[in-house]
Amino acid sequence: MSIEELKKSVEEIIEEANKQYSNIDDEISLNEFKNNFLGKKSSLTSFFSMMKDVKSEDKKAFGEIVIKLKSVLNELYEKKRNEINEKKIDQRMKEEKVDISLPGREEKIGSKHPIKAVIDDIVSFMMSLGFSLKEGPEVETEVNNFELVNIPLDHPARDMQDSFSIDDNLVLRSHTSCIQARVMKEMRGDYPVKIICPGKVYRRDSDATHSHEFFQIEGLVIGEKVNMSHLLQTLTLLLKHIFGEKRQVRFRPSYFPFTEPSIEVDISCAECNGKGCHLCKNTGFIEVLGAGMVHPNVLRLNGYDDKKVQGFAFGIGVDRIAMLKYKIDDIKNFYSGDINFLRQFSKE
Ligand code: FA5
What we know:
It is a single chain. This protein is an alpha+beta fold. The chain has helices spanning about 5-25, 25-40, 45-50, 60-95, 115-130, 140-145, 155-160, 180-185, 230-245, 295-300, 320-325, 340-345, and strands at about 130-135, 140, 170, 195-200, 215-225, 250-255, 260-270, 285-295, 310-315. Adenosine-5'-[phenylalaninyl-phosphate] (FA5) binds near residues 175, 216, 259 and 292.
C-alpha cells in the first residue's frame, strides 16, 4: 500500500470511528467499538502487519501515520470509557441514597463480671491498708495444698475438702491457703508478711450456694506481736467497707487445721436486719469467711520461729460476698456465661 492510499484509508477509518463513537451509550457498544477499531481483526492491526512489506523509503512516514491513527482511536475509546464509568457511578449514587441522619449502630460496652468487681474492690481496699498482692497456680502440689498448712495425709480434714486430684502429687487447689505456704517459703522466715491473694479454687461441691469452682481471697499477716484483735479489727473494717456501716459483724469460734484459735465470721442479714428470715435460715446472720491465728505448726513447717512471730490469716468466699451484695440466689449464674445475666451489672 502506498502512502497516499494509506492516508485515504486512515481518513475513512477516522470518519467511521467518529460516527460509531457518537452512538456508543453502554459497555456493549463500547466493546464493539474497541473490537472494530483496535481489535485483532481491525484495519489498524492489519496496517501494523503490512509494515514489513512497505518500501524502505516509505517506512518512516507509514509508521508515523499508523501510530497517529492508533493514538486517535485510543483517545476516542478512553474518552468514551470514562464517560460511561462516570455515568455508572452517578446512577449508583442516585440509587444508593445514604441517609446520614439515621443513628449509627450502637457499640455494646461490656461490664466487669460481678466476681471480678468484688475481687477488685476487696484487693484495692486491702492494699489501702498496706497489704500487697500475691498469686499462686490453680494446679497445686499436695504438699502446699495440705501438708504445709497442717493437713497431713491421714488428717480427717481432707474429707472436708473433697479435692480434684491430677495425680499422686498434684491437685486443683481446694483453697487459697496454699498460697500461704508458697509465700512463707519465698520469704525464708523473714517478716513482716502482709499479703492478699485472690484466686480460683475447686471442690467436689454442688448446690445453689456451692459450686465445684469458686473464688477465694486469702489474707496473711506475720510479724512480731500480731494478735487476735488485729485480725478482728481488719475483718470488721473490710466487711463494713463491703456491706456498709449499718451491718453487724459477728465472730464465732470454729475449727480449721491451719489456725488456732479459729473463727468464722458472719454479717447481719440484709433482708431482715438480724431478725431472722428464710435467707438467713432464721439466724439473722450469714457466714462469709473463715479466719484465725496462724497455727504454730504452720509457722514451723514453713520455716518461721513460732516463739518469735505470730500471724493471722483469713479466707473469704468471693462468690458468697457477690451473692449477698447483688442478691443472687444461685451461684451457677456466675459461671453460666449468660449474657443477659451479666448485662444486669452493666452501668450503661
Ligand atoms: C477455707 O477454705 C479456709 N481455707 C479459709 C481460711 C483461711 C480459714 C485462712 C482460716 C484461715 P472454708 O472451707 O470455710 O475455709 O471456705 C471459706 C469460704 O469459701 C466459705 O466461707 C464460703 O464462703 C466459701 N466456699 C466454700 N466452699 C464453697 C463452694 N463450694 N462454693 C462457693 N463458695 C464456697
